Amino acid sequence: MSLVDTCLVDCPYCGEVLEFAIDCPDGRHQYTEDCHVCCQPIAVDVTVAAGSPEMVSVAQENE
Predict the structure, then answer these.
(1) Distance linking the first and last C-alpha atoms of the chain
(2) Whole-model pTM above 0.85?
(3) DSSP code for 13
(4) What does the DSSP 8-state code read for residue 17?
Protein backbone atom coordinates (compact mmCIF):
# COMPACT_ATOMS: atom_id res chain seq x y z
CA MET A 1 0.00 0.00 0.00
CA SER A 2 1.45 3.33 -1.08
CA LEU A 3 1.24 6.38 1.18
CA VAL A 4 1.05 8.62 -1.90
CA ASP A 5 -1.33 8.04 -4.78
CA THR A 6 -2.08 10.16 -7.84
CA CYS A 7 -5.27 11.04 -9.66
CA LEU A 8 -6.16 12.91 -12.84
CA VAL A 9 -8.65 15.78 -12.66
CA ASP A 10 -9.84 18.48 -15.06
CA CYS A 11 -9.18 22.05 -13.96
CA PRO A 12 -12.57 23.71 -13.36
CA TYR A 13 -11.20 26.96 -14.84
CA CYS A 14 -9.15 26.11 -17.95
CA GLY A 15 -10.13 22.44 -18.48
CA GLU A 16 -6.52 21.20 -18.52
CA VAL A 17 -6.02 17.64 -17.25
CA LEU A 18 -3.92 17.77 -14.07
CA GLU A 19 -2.25 15.08 -12.01
CA PHE A 20 -2.59 15.59 -8.26
CA ALA A 21 -0.66 13.66 -5.63
CA ILE A 22 -2.94 12.45 -2.84
CA ASP A 23 -1.04 12.06 0.43
CA CYS A 24 -3.68 11.76 3.12
CA PRO A 25 -4.67 9.35 5.87
CA ASP A 26 -8.05 7.62 5.66
CA GLY A 27 -11.00 10.00 5.89
CA ARG A 28 -12.34 13.07 4.13
CA HIS A 29 -9.97 15.95 3.40
CA GLN A 30 -10.50 19.36 1.82
CA TYR A 31 -7.74 21.66 0.64
CA THR A 32 -6.84 24.17 -2.06
CA GLU A 33 -4.29 23.51 -4.80
CA ASP A 34 -3.35 25.84 -7.65
CA CYS A 35 -3.75 24.74 -11.27
CA HIS A 36 -0.31 24.06 -12.77
CA VAL A 37 -1.40 25.72 -16.03
CA CYS A 38 -3.62 28.75 -15.26
CA CYS A 39 -2.59 29.20 -11.57
CA GLN A 40 -6.22 29.51 -10.38
CA PRO A 41 -7.06 28.11 -6.90
CA ILE A 42 -8.89 24.76 -7.05
CA ALA A 43 -10.95 23.47 -4.12
CA VAL A 44 -10.15 19.76 -3.77
CA ASP A 45 -12.37 17.35 -1.79
CA VAL A 46 -10.89 13.86 -1.27
CA THR A 47 -12.23 10.78 0.47
CA VAL A 48 -9.53 8.19 1.26
CA ALA A 49 -10.21 4.63 2.41
CA ALA A 50 -7.79 1.76 2.90
CA GLY A 51 -4.94 4.05 1.81
CA SER A 52 -6.42 4.85 -1.63
CA PRO A 53 -8.52 7.76 -2.86
CA GLU A 54 -12.14 6.62 -3.30
CA MET A 55 -13.58 9.95 -4.40
CA VAL A 56 -11.88 13.11 -5.64
CA SER A 57 -13.87 16.17 -6.67
CA VAL A 58 -12.66 19.61 -7.71
CA ALA A 59 -14.41 22.96 -8.06
CA GLN A 60 -13.61 26.61 -8.46
CA GLU A 61 -12.55 27.92 -5.06
CA ASN A 62 -15.39 30.46 -4.86
CA GLU A 63 -18.23 28.08 -5.77
Answers:
(1) 34
(2) no
(3) T
(4) E
